[in-house]
Design goal:
Blueprint (H helix, E strand, L loop, with lengths): L5 H16 L8 H19 L4 H15 L7 H8 L6 H19 L1 H13 L3 H15 L6 H19 L14 H18 L6 H11 L6 H26 L10 H12 L4 H19 L7 H14 L5 H6 L1 H22 L2 H13 L4 H14 L7 H18 L4 H14 L11 H5 L6 H30 L3
Helix pairs in contact: 1-2, 2-3, 2-16, 2-19, 3-4, 3-16, 5-10, 5-14, 5-16, 6-7, 6-12, 7-8, 7-9, 7-11, 8-9, 9-11, 9-20, 10-16, 10-19, 10-20, 11-22, 13-14, 16-19, 17-19, 18-19, 18-20, 19-20, 20-22
Family: Belongs to the SLC13A/DASS transporter (TC 2.A.47) family. DIT1 subfamily.
Keywords: Membrane, Transmembrane, Transmembrane helix
Protein name: Anion permease
Amino acid sequence: MKEINIKAVAITFAIALIIWFIPAPEGVAENAWHLFAIFAATILGIILKAAPMGTMCMMAIGFTALTQVVAPGDAGKSITKALSGFGDKVIWLIGISFFIARGFIKTGLGNRIAFLFIRIFGRSSLGLAYGLGLADVCLAPAIPSNTARGGGIIYPIMKSMAISFDSVPDKPETHRKLGSFLTLNSYYMNLIASSMFLTGTASNPMCQKFAANLGINITWMSWAAAGFVPGLVAFFVVPLVLYKLYPPELKKTGDAPKMAAQKLKEMGPISKNEWLMLLAFFILLALWIFGGALSIDATTTAFIGLTLLLLTSVLTWEDVKSEKGAWDTIVWFAVLVMMASSLNELGFIGWFSDLIKAKIGGMTWTVAFPVIILVYFFSHYIFASATAHVAAMYAALLGVGVAVGIPPMLLAMMLGFLGSIYGVLTHYGHGPAPVFFGSGYVDLKAWWLRGLEIGIVLLIIYMGVGGLWMKVLGYY
């Protein structure tokens, strides 16, 4: 019972029952309302940490099938529908990308890339921050778990660099020397990199799926094209702003390039498996960018990359079986997508959109757009999971915005970017947050205050620069 919080489970069930037995509002089918009860309880259970996310989602499948809310009166069709998420190609895109990410870690190529950038840029604390951030951006297209990318590759190197300059977690008086600045900056850069690519973090393909349900087609390339410019501006601006708001005491880190060079020397020349991993990486990028012209979609590309890594023994089938994070993601991703998609099919999302539209119907889209963005961004304070936030609010807010006249692609992409960058607000707001906060370099007050400041900067960049850039691209 160590994984189960009995009190939180009881609250979750109570809320589910309350919503279930409230009469369905006018315009909502009874089974749609009952599915919403299960969906809302699942999201609440995830927020309250009543049980692991996979456990909550398995319970949701069980209750969805048992109550037959997605196919009333047809038990066989109900269980088929409850399991339909596992057949969605978007689910397998993100799952397979996790397996590919294992190749970067297993071969050491991810660490090599990070040390190369540190050797080039690491002569100052600001340069070191940019070097670590650039490594994250380069790895982001093929490593969709920003927790694996930030916590498994960037964080250990960042911490090692801080300690090498006598900024030690166990000595609070040394934190501001270098560790505090690098911790926050590395976390922020991780989120910026996550926003730039469809495969940058696990929740992005979920946004793509929900947008598709509303007839908005987002491809790997259209996401990258829209995210590149605001992401690049944020990449250059955020370290500079943080350097002013939360400066490190140590400005020069002349020994960092030497340390990185020593690490590279210890790693030796690039191995055959690293070359093969690099080849697979470039094949993946090429097909994600140009595959549309060849009728090769992003999921097919991911299968091609994984097959190449398996055939060349860069990865083994044991590696695939043991990649717990991927299988965990496939499970909860499939269930949340199934419920959210079913809510849309049963008319609940449309009803909710019309309800909100009636409340804000007097607004022009230019006023409604920032209102929706701000609501979505700052509501993240109550979410301990970016995925839960996307599942709970993305489709509904997108439907509302489109209903009041906001250009569909503009809103779909902007809400998608926010699914990464709203993680700056809290120490629990995104997957890598507990890893970086757990270093002890930044206290809670500083984390939240700097997060709010940087969050406002990112909102200005993405809404201002990003909005104008999408206009140039012809997205609206």
